[in-house]
Amino acid sequence: MFGDLFAQPQALEFEDSLFQCSRVMSLSDGKKKMSKSDKSAKSIIHLIDEPEIIRLKIRKAKTDSEGTITYEPQNRPELANLLRIYAAMEGMPVEKVHQVFEGDNMFAFKEKLSNKLIDTICPIGDRALDLCQNKEDLLLETLDKGAVKAN
C-alpha cells in the first residue's frame, strides 16, 4: 500500500551475545534477574554509579572457587553472567570471551570487566547527572530551538 516508504522489518539475531538471554542477571545471584528493587545494593550496577563503586561491586560479585575462566552457564551461572556482560560491552560472542581471559585468575578478569564497565557506563552517568543539574537551562534552550523551528 505504501510502496517503499517504510522499510520491511527484519528480525535481529543476537547469537552468542548478552541478548541471547533476555536479561542481565544479579551480581549476587546468577540465577536471579538484576533488579533495582533488590534488597542488596551490591547486586546491581546503576548508570550513575561512581567508578570505584562499580569496581567494588564487580570485585564482590558472586563467582565460584574454580581458578579458571570458562563459559559454562549451567554449572557456573554467576561467572557466565559476568562473561555475558563483558561480551556485550566488547561486542563479541560470549563463547569466545573466556578465551580472552585464558590463564587469568578471577581477580584479573573482574578487574578487566570493571575497567570496561567504567569506560562504558561512567560517561553515560556523567551526562545524566549533568542534564539533571542543568535541566532548567536545557529545557529553555530546547523550547527556544523548537520555537525557531516551528516559526
How would you describe what is shown here?
The chain is mainly alpha-helical and 151 residues long. It is built from five helices and no strands. The chain has a domain at 18-27 and 46-122: Tyrosyl-Transfer RNA Synthetase, CATH 1.10.240.10. It is 49% helix and 0% strand. The two termini are 33 Å apart.
Short description:
The chain has 151 residues and is mainly alpha-helical.
What portion of residues is helical? 40-55%
- Please provide the count of β strands: 0
User: What global shape is seen?
Assistant: extended
Our Rg estimate from Cα atoms comes to 20 Å
CATH superfamily of the domain at 18-27 and 46-122: Tyrosyl-Transfer RNA Synthetase
For the report, how would you describe the main beta sheet?
none
User: How far from one another are the termini?
Assistant: 33 Å
CATH fold call of the domain at 18-27 and 46-122: Tyrosyl-Transfer RNA Synthetase
Mean pLDDT, to the nearest integer, reads 84
Just give the CATH class of the domain at 18-27 and 46-122: Mainly Alpha
CATH architecture classification name of the domain at 18-27 and 46-122: Orthogonal Bundle
Low-pLDDT stretches are 14-19
Number of helical stretches of at least 4 residues: 5
Order of helices and strands: HHHHH
Estimate the strand proportion.
under 5%
Q: Structural class from helices and strands? A: mainly alpha
